[in-house]
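cron nightly-structures :: item 1 of 1
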Amino acid sequence: VQLQESGGGSVQSGGSLRLSCAVSGYIHSTYCMGWFRQSPGKEREGVAAIDNEGSTNYADSVKGRFTISRDNAENTLYLQMNSLKPEDTAMYYCAADLDFCGLSPRYNYWGQGTQVTVSS
């Protein structure tokens, strides 16, 4: 299983970005998938997760601004990010796991990350 993120970039505060995560290799639709982020000197933190039935979970810091979704037919995970703030600046990673679903970085499969930079 390989995960590849795209869609990162630089945006001004209040702007929007949409991240995508393309999944290749065998991955059953029952996998849970999530988005994480990490800034220099900080631990990796969970941003959002979505299970195979579409139930979602968000970090308090992004609730109401970010939306996670998945297209199982296309094997793609998305993160729509609106009202971006400078504190959202980080490397964003997608992850997948068959047995675990949540905002803890306990997933088995990880992408390489895509950088998001928000300027004030």
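cron nightly-structures :: done
The radius of gyration is 13 Å.
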